[in-house]
Every structure is written in structure tokens, then in C-alpha cells.
Specification:
Blueprint lengths: L1 H9 L2 E5 L3 E5 L4 H4 L9 H9 L5 E5 L5 H8 L3 E5 L3 H14 L4 E3 L2 E2 L4 E6 L19 E7 L1 H5 L6 E4 L5 H6 L2 H5 L6 E3 L4 H5 L5 H9 L2 E6 L5 E4 L9 E5 L11
């Protein structure tokens, strides 16, 4: 009986995602199990569904199994996705193949420099770049790194989602050119306590970096509109960064 339940539990479910897409949801892998319970699985995806337009460039940093990439493609955006976790990368490719989607995909990490860095590989969605010993892991491997500025070049980017389990500041340090010139129209950043584990810091350095580059920090309401200014840098829900300068698009009003 136990073996029968185990087979069912480990069998992926084909779930509807977005308006017309599907993905394999593995109940034992939390990055995909969330789609079983809601579509979209988070309010943050409503922001992108309202903001992205056909022809936009969207960069998915920490793409995991591809939920954000799928939503961006449905909006008609071109996607460049990054996921250094080998297990998640397999799921990402499976989900893109399931929908006949072909985003540009790199099985590497983005950081503050090009090279290689240690990363955990046995912590499910909590896998992270490692700078200090982590007693939870026994599987640590080198992964190649690039910078976001190298990826972007001189292009204008509509949106960047960064979910790197605490190393978001390093990704931003590798994007100083694009941030200073405000060539990224909207950013989403993980804002939980993982930064304490990985870098030994709060989210304040990230906030100060974005504010000094001319971005304001916002959170969405239940409809996916960016109407709540972030007044405290304490850990919490993901934060969106919006350029202060005037433009033809207003992500806080989508």
C-alpha cells in the first residue's frame, strides 16, 4: 500500500497555468506544487500579467520550474531565463517542451561577476549560492556565473524577476549599468530572511541600492496594482522596484 501511495505522490500532475498553458506539478517539489492550488499561484504574477506587453523583454533570474516564464510568454514577451539548480532546470525544460515554448535558457547563476561560485544542490527550492558553511547541505557544487549587465548589454528590459534565495543584492551589483540608466522598467525581488542566511544581512542594502539608482519600492494590492509604497525594509512579501523617472508606462497604475 505504501508503495502505491508513493507512486501516486511522485507522479507529476499536468496542471493548467495562465490562460492557455500547462505545466507538470510535482507535489514533492514546492516550486511546482503551488500551481495545484491557485492560478495564478501568487498576486505577484498578476502584476506581470497586467504590465507585460507583446514584444517586451523579460528576464527570469532564478526561474525554477518556469512559472514566471510561462506567464511572460503568454503575454507575448521574449524571455531569457536562468536556473543553476540542475533538478529545477530539468523541470523547466519539461514545462517549456510541454507548451512548445522556446525561451532562451541558461543553466547558470547571475551574480556580481563572471566566474564560478559554490551552490547547494540538496535543499529543494531553498538551494542557494554559498559563501559560508551551511549545516543543512551535503551537496555543494560549482556553478558558472555571469552578470546581468553582460546579459542585457545596451538593451531596454521591460521586467526582471530575481529570486535567488538571499543573493539578490549580488545580482543587482552585476546590473549597475542597467540600473543607473534605468533601462529596467520593473523589478521583482524576493524579500524574505534568506539574505541573512546567505549574506548575513537584511534587505536594507538592496533597498538602498535601488533607491539610490532612482527606483521606488512598491507592493501590489489583491488586483496586482502597485499601489502600496514600501515604508519599512523588514522581511516580508516580494517587493517591486519602479523607476522614478517619467515614462510612457506606469507599472504602479497597471
Amino acid at each position: 500500500m505504501f508503495q502505491a501511495y508513493a507512486r501516486i505522490f511522485n507522479r507529476p500532475l499536468k496542471i493548467r497555468v495562465g490562460a492557455r498553458s500547462k505545466m507538470f506539478a510535482h507535489l514533492h517539489f514546492s516550486a511546482t506544487s503551488e500551481v495545484v492550488y491557485a492560478n495564478p499561484p501568487s498576486i505577484d504574477l498578476l502584476v506581470w500579467s497586467r504590465y507585460l506587453e507583446a514584444g517586451d523583454l523579460f528576464i527570469d533570474v532564478g526561474a525554477s520550474a518556469g512559472v514566471y516564464t510561462i506567464f511572460a510568454i503568454e503575454r507575448g514577451a521574449s524571455v531569457i531565463a536562468f536556473e543553476p539548480n540542475a533538478k529545477a532546470a530539468v523541470l523547466f525544460r519539461e514545462n517549456m517542451k510541454l507548451n512548445n515554448y522556446s525561451p532562451e535558457f541558461h543553466e547558470i547563476a547571475l551574480s556580481d561577476r563572471q566566474g564560478a561560485i559554490d551552490m547547494t544542490f540538496d535543499l529543494d527550492v531553498a538551494n542557494h549560492l554559498m559563501f559560508v558553511p551551511d549545516e543543512r547541505t551535503r551537496d555543494v557544487r560549482k556553478v558558472p556565473t555571469r552578470t546581468l549587465d553582460q546579459v542585457i548589454g545596451h538593451r531596454q528590459v521591460a521586467g526582471v524577476k530575481i529570486d535567488t534565495e538571499g543573493a539578490e543584492r549580488l545580482v543587482l551589483m552585476g546590473a549597475t549599468g542597467a540600473l543607473t540608466e534605468q533601462r529596467i522598467g520593473l523589478l521583482q525581488l524576493e524579500w524574505n530572511y534568506a539574505s541573512m542566511k546567505v549574506l548575513g544581512e537584511t534587505r536594507r542594502p538592496v533597498a538602498e541600492m535601488l533607491v539610490s539608482a532612482g527606483y521606488r519600492l512598491m507592493r501590489p494590492n489583491l488586483q496586482g496594482q502597485l499601489v502600496h509604497p514600501v515604508t519599512s525594509y523588514e522581511f516580508g512579501r516580494d517587493v517591486f522596484a519602479v523607476p522614478q523617472k517619467a515614462s510612457g508606462r506606469h507599472p504602479d497604475q497597471v
